[in-house]
Design brief:
98 residues, alpha+beta, globular
Amino acid sequence: MAIIVVLDMVGATQAQYEQTANKVTGGRGLVKGRSDWPVPGIISHVAGPSPTGWFVVDVWESQEAWERFAETLVPFAKEAGMPEFTPKVYPVFNVVTE
């Protein structure tokens, strides 16, 4: 079952996001397509500034796909100096991609 993952990263910056994304893509800059992800299973990804830091909302094909990605993401985020964050995960009822 698909899931929504919300990361509300209080105190995180765009520069930290960009540094983390660059690590995720193996040095190719921001993620721009599904093939840029180090693991399969991403359906959609959006990120931007929030009043308190940085905000990300992903849709993943499954909890397992998200967890595989999180194993990659967390060390890169720590390396970039991002504050600790706790993902909020919700079930998906409907996904529209086109």
